Amino acid sequence: MSLDPQVLRLADVLPESMLFLNSAGTILWANCAALEMLQAPQGDVLGKALSEFVSEAPSKLQEYLDLCSRGSHLSIGSLTLKTSHGELIPCRCEGGMLERAAASGESVLLLRQRPKEDASRQFLLLNEQISLLSRARHELESRIAIRTSDLTAAQTALRELSAKLLRAQDDERRRLARDLHDSTGQLLTAMLLNLSVLMQDAAALPAESVSRLSETVELANQAITEIRTMSYLLHPPMLDEAGLEMALQWYVDGFRKRSNIRVYLSVPTGLHRLDRDVELAVFRIVQECLTNIHRHSGSALAQIMLSVESGKLILVIRDEGRGLPFPPGDGDFKQSGVGIRGMQERVRQLDGSIQFQAGNPGTLVRVELPLSGRTLDSADQSRRAAGLQPD
User: How far apart are CA 388 and CA 292, in angstroms?
Assistant: First the structure.
């Protein structure tokens, strides 16, 4: 059977490998790309059976050729070609009817073959890169998990240390307050009593001595007052004895006199006694905020509002001064001082939240502390007043 020369010339310039077969699977013609792929000259290919150049079983090959001879559509398949040097080349095949010889009844099939070697190599390389990336990702995730675990452990240890430092600080303040009151305060009181006895015999003393004695008595009274105030500021005994409301009222009254700042205190009626840590935290936060208002804000007014809402103790402190020297919010402030960081740590230890907001003018500090399990019943309040730990 003769093939159309124009078809052969066209096939010869195509980059794809093309084999022309009859219905028996004999190669009638091969274009240049096919000969180059098979690494064989035209004379070693023409007239040979396709089965000599593929590794598939003859039955599988014939099955595919039969499929190609049916209908007018291309049939997609895959074959592995064998070159003259024994190299195996996976191929993607597209076969279909080219023309039918009327005289002999034989079919001519066009087998378009696309070598998959480069694609397979690219796939293997891509798969290798994906595998490397996957291993690198797993290693990175493992390192991140270890690092995160270490960081979490370090943060937990830091918080535990901060809590211990706060407790140690409060215990030391309580000890110093007790020593100042029981030791230094008592010594000054004894000295004042001795001076008072001397004042009774002052008539026999020169006028200058009487004046100096009177001045010494006044200095002793001032020292006793200062020691008592310092002792109460370090740790107010009424916080344990009478509760948060009375301790805040006492502190605010003294702060008004010392600073000449108008302070308005609002506490809900019938506020129950709270857990020692909660009452101490609220008192210290109020103490720190009022100290900052006096030292830094320049405000002539301060407001303290305490309320209970939805199982939370809400503390709001605001002034009308210069405002915050750092951006407001509820995060950590790198420019803040030790006092603000101490407030944050106290709130964090109680699972609460603290926010610093612009008051327009001034600053607003809002603290929320959960009260679940942190209120005391009557028995616990009695034990607290007696200086004992609640059950």
Answer: 33
Per-block mean pLDDT, blocks of 10 residues, the chain (391 long): 72 81 84 88 90 88 81 75 85 70 45 50 62 84 90 82 78 80 80 82 77 85 82 78 87 89 89 86 91 87 91 91 66 59 87 86 90 61 51 49
- Residue 48 CA to residue 241 CA, distance in Å, equals 112
**What is the domain partition of the chain in residue ranges?**
5-115, 117-235, 238-391
Q: Closest Cα partner for 264 from 296, 303, 293? A: 303
Q: 3-state DSSP call for residue 369?
A: strand
Give the pLDDT score at 124. Answer: 57
- Look up tokens 């020593």; give the residue: 179
Of 250, 335, 342, 256, nearest to 293 by C-alpha is 256
Residues with Cβ within 8 Å of 208's Cβ and at least 6 positions away in sequence, in order, are none
| CA 126/CA 132 separation, integer angstroms | 10
Q: What is the pLDDT of residue 101?
A: 42
Euclidean distance between CA atoms 314 and 308, whole angstroms: 6
Strand partners of residue 356: 329, 365
How far apart, in Å, are the Cα atoms of 355 and each of 42, 116, 315, 336? 87, 66, 11, 13
The closest of 321, 318, 314, 311 to 372, measured between CA atoms, is 311
Q: Tokens 């008004």 belong to which residue?
A: 256
Q: What is the pLDDT of residue 369?
A: 92
Classify residue 5 by burial, with Cβ atoms within 10 Å: 0-12, 13-18, 19+.
exposed
pLDDT of residue 286: 92
CATH code given to domain 5-115: 3.30.450.20
DSSP 205-242: S-HHHHHHHHHHHHHHHHHHHHHHHHHHHHS-HHHHHT
Q: Residue 183: what pLDDT? A: 79
293 by Cβ neighbours in 10 Å (0-12 / 13-18 / 19+) ranks as: buried
Which fold does the domain 238-391 belong to in CATH? Answer: Heat Shock Protein 90 (3.30.565)
* Whether 50 contacts 39, CB under 8 Å: no
Question: Which residue in the block uniquely carries the two structure tokens 């103490």?
Answer: 287
| Three-state DSSP state, 264 | strand
Cβ–Cβ < 8 Å for 256, 263 = yes
